[in-house]
Amino acid sequence: MRVTVDPITRIEGHLRIDCEVDDGHVAKAWASGQMWRGIELILKDRDPRDAWIFAQRICGVCTTVHAIASVRAVENALQLEVPLNAQYIRNLIITAHAVHDHIVHFYHLSALDWVDIVSALSADPAAASRLAQSLSDWPRNSVQEFTQVQERLKAFVESGQLGVFGSGYWGHPAMVLEPEVNLMAAAHYLQALDYQRRANRIVAILGSKTPHIQNVAVGGVSNPINLDSQSTLSIERLMAIRTAIDEVGAFINQVYLPDVAAIGAKYADWTGYGAGITNYLSVPDLPLDTRGTQFALPGGYIPGGNLDQFQAITSFDDPFFANGVKESVKHAWYRGGRGALHPYDGETEPEYTDFNDDEKYSWVKSPTFLDARAQVGPLANVLAMYVAGHEPTQRHTNWLMQQVGNHLNAELSLSALHSTIGRHAARAVRCAVLHEALSDQWQLLIDNIGRGDTDTFNRPEFPSGEIRGVGFHEAPRGVLSHWTVIRDGKIDNYQAVVPTTWNAGPRDENDEPGPYEASLVDNPVADAELPLEILRTVHSFDPCLACAIHLVDTQQREIVRVRAL
Ligand code: NFE
Ligand code: MG
Prior knowledge:
Layout: E1 2-6, E2 15-22, E3 25-33, H1 39-42, H2 51-55, H3 63-78, H4 84-110, H5 125-135, H6 143-158, H7 179-207, E4 216-217, E5 220-221, H8 235-266, E6 280-281, E7 285-287, E8 295-297, E9 300-302, E10 311-312, H9 319-322, E11 325-328, E12 366-369, H10 378-387, H11 391-408, H12 420-450, E13 466-475, E14 478-487, E15 490-497, H13 499-504, H14 515-520, H15 532-539, H16 545-549, E16 561-564
Antiparallel strand pairs: 1-2, 1-16, 2-3, 4-5, 6-9, 7-8, 9-10, 11-12, 13-14, 14-15
This protein binds NI-FE active center and magnesium ion.
């Protein structure tokens, strides 16, 4: 039986998933990006100093990340150093953004695949509060708070409008949480709206605006530091950031992590599904020097899920990364024929044909690392940081595994992370790790300014002739890289190889499936008309198709369709 989900909702952009379902399990899957935007082409012939402003519009979710990757690519081409203050300010922006993004993903984009909001109506608020208080000291786990949330939900349902909760799979046989756990999660869903906003406020203060920050520049950041001036980065703003960091940290450590442990334990069977591609790629991030040779967070490559074979990526110039990436368009709607290409030689020539299982069926290209498919994202990053000996990552990972083990009365090993639920666990760990890094970067910035350094910008000078550069960033959904060839001060080629491109890509030059496709195989599907399990695995990657395909359907066709044939 063929099951088509088009589009997958609660993501950015348009993604179609097709599955061949036999005997209640997925036998084969196809991931198809259903939009094309062409921002890489818009960049051609432009001034490289402006590229980040355009590139940032690739996405409305991970907005800052394309600005950062873009300026890093141009700086890499110029071998331009970035003042320490500018590195720290950028590090604060990307870390605060990622913390906001991970909270939004767990609660608002994916929790409702696991949490049944309607079941929360029959919960006993006192029992739910007792349960939540047994998990953490969070002050907003009171009976009053949970009763209020339940009343709000009841009012929604009685009005006949579930509002944002309107089209969930309520009562689905794959939903297993007790009403009290559902009520606790529903309360935290609403609280998370507030805490993600506080994290994002840090981005707005430092970036002058969000979404789409305004203050980066090739060579640094554009707003100056003057502790006494209202119109620059001042002491008052730095202290407002400090307050937000502390408030958000309490939510992550007392709510997000315990929730993932408690809910994850109830769905322990999902540690057995969704591994897919276990070549894991991540990059180091949060540069601590002006050239990008030291980083607060490690990254690198783990082939075949084998942590012993971890190979670190060590600088913005590391040829191991820069030489390892290619993209294929054999199964994507672009003119091809030259095989998989390195991004400096990459081409983006759209050529739409129909959806054809064995030929072309997606706007997403298929990236490879060392000629193999790779999974990117928080799981890849957490495994790399863990094996690289990063203490906060080991501490938070061990804590989470221990908590889940306690819930289950069992000992868990890291291998449980190679799964659908493992991606959620890793994202929660990474959120806590990033929060600590955010705090550290704030202190580094304060200390550096305290030493009398207020530099934020080194002016770029473009030589005649050709230069090329890559900028990478460990974005919320994984490895992001921008590649540019600059000739006589103008952009000659620009390619963005984006996290969702890595994970959502169709079959590659060797017809090997991508991470979404591989991870869906063997997943159970209890009801082909209501394919909740497919959503669970796909959502666990946190898809963003706007990023992956860098259109709008002007024909206003049907918006949501689930078909089981
Ligand atoms: Ni549009 Fe993005 C992130 C980037 S994903 S969300 O993270 O880059 O592909
Ligand atoms: Mg691209």
